[in-house]
Amino acid sequence: MGREAQITQTFVELADTFVKDFDVVDFLHQLTVRCREILAVTDAAVLLAHPGERLHSPAPCDPSPAFQDLLATALAQGPALDAYRTSTAQRPTRQAPARARWPAFTAQARAAGYHYTCALPMRLRDETLGSLLLLRTDARPLPAADLALAQAFADAATLGLLHAHTHERQETVNQQLHTALHSRIVIEQAKGILAARHHTSLNHAFNAIRHHARNHGQLLTTVAHDVINHGLLTPGTTGRTEATPE
C-alpha cells in the first residue's frame, strides 16, 4: 500500500468511532501504529488527560522497558505535558534548549536512543484532551510536512473521541476513557504471559490479543483479563489467534 493510501486509510480509521463496541484503547494504539508507519518517526505515544486533569498513557505502545520508563517521565515533564498544557506544538530545534526546559526527560530520552522529540496537542477549539508524542533516533528535526500531517492525525483523533463521547453513548465511552487510563497494566501483564508461555515476542503477543478482540467483538481489556485468568489464546505465526484446547 502506498503512502497516500495509508494516509487516507488512517483518516477513515480515526473517523470510525460510531461503530458498535468502540474500543478506546485499540483506537489510540492504532493512532501510534499509523504514526510509526507513515511519519519519519521511530516511536509514538498518546498521553491522554480526559477525563481528568493529569496526563496518562492509556494506549499500549512499544514494549521496550526504556520506552515505558520514558513515558512515565513524560507524564511529569517534557514536550507532551507542555503541548497539553499550552495547546500548542512543542518542537525544539536543538537539544540544548530541550535539556534546559526538560532536563530529566531529555537525558532519559537520549539514554533510550532518541535524539529528537516533539509533541502535538490533541485539541478541538478550546478543548484539549492530551497530546501526541513523537520520537526519532535521528537528531534531525521532523520534516515540516510530517509535522503538519501528525497534527492533522491528532486533530482527527480528538474529533473522533469527542464524537464517540457525545453520540448517544456518552456514559459508555466516558467509562471507557476512565478504564483506558488504567488498562495498560492489565494488557502488559497479558502480553507477558502469552509471550513467556509461547516463547514469542511481546509485540507478537499483543497482536494476538488484538486480533482475538477484533474477531470476537471484545474489548482489549476483556481479552487481556481472559488471558490472565484462563490463558485462552495461542499467538499464531501470522498474528491470528487460536483457542487453547481445554
Main features:
single chain, 246 residues, alpha+beta, Beta-Lactamase, Arc Repressor Mutant, subunit A, 2 domains, two-stranded antiparallel ribbon, disordered C terminus
If you had to describe this structure to a student in words, what would you say it looks like?
With about 250 residues, this protein is an alpha+beta fold. It folds into two domains: about 5-165, 2-Layer Sandwich (Beta-Lactamase), CATH 3.30.450; about 180-245, Winged helix-like DNA-binding domain superfamily/Winged helix DNA-binding domain (Arc Repressor Mutant, subunit A), CATH 1.10.10.10. It is about 55% helix and about 15% strand. The strands form two sheets. It has a three-stranded antiparallel beta sheet with strand order 1-3-2, sandwiched between helices. A hairpin with a 2-residue loop joins strand 2 and strand 3. It starts with a helix and ends with a strand. The model is unreliable at about 235-245 (pLDDT under 50).
